[in-house]
Amino acid sequence: MGGGTELQILLRNLEPVRRPGIFVFSSLPGHRIPTGVEAAAAIEEDEGLTLVLEKGEAERCGINGIFPCAWITLKVHSDLAAVGLTAAVSAALAREGIACNVIAGYHHDHLLVPAEDADRALEILRALASGEPDA
């Protein structure tokens, strides 16, 4: 079943939640997740396989990771065809100088922000949901 598409309703219902742990990005040759590696996300690119995995998992598997980040899930169920949600969320974080990498899942959007900015990002997203000006 599809999620919501009306931007103002989606924003009011963002419900950002931080997933425990610190995550890193890695790029591996080929297009298959190596046996024994537990990735939180995988994206096939022409250059190889991008993995997002917990920092401890990367270290355990000897995989070099970059961009230590916090994983924030927007619990609102947004339709994949919804227009403007990613733009509104990333713009609110950008105004505060916070980088934001977005992964769209079937049910939710997931934001990967610098680990050191996680608490501030959550505050900004909650302000955006509450309709506070300048959020």
Which features does this protein show?
33% strand; alpha+beta; 135 residues; single chain; 6 strands; 6-stranded antiparallel sheet
- Detail the poorly predicted runs: none
Q: Kindly state the percentage of residues in helix.
A: 25-40%
Q: Structural class, from helix and strand content?
A: alpha+beta
Give me the Rg, rounded.
16 Å
Average pLDDT, to the nearest integer? 93
Terminus-to-terminus distance: 30 Å
Number of helices, where a helix is a run of at least 4 consecutive DSSP H or I residues? 4
Sheet with the most strands, sense and barrel status: 6 strands, antiparallel
Strand content: 25-35%
Order of helical and strand elements: HEEEHEHEEH
Biggest sheet strand line-up: 2-3-1-4-6-5
Which descriptor suits the 3D outline?
A: globular
Count of DSSP strands: 6
Please provide a written account of the structure.
Helix content is 27%, strand content 33%. With 135 residues, the protein is of the alpha+beta class. The protein has a six-stranded antiparallel sheet with strand order 2-3-1-4-6-5. A hairpin with a 4-residue loop joins strand 5 (101-104) and strand 6 (109-114). The longest helix is centred in the last third of the chain and has 13 residues, at 118-130. 25% of the residues are buried.
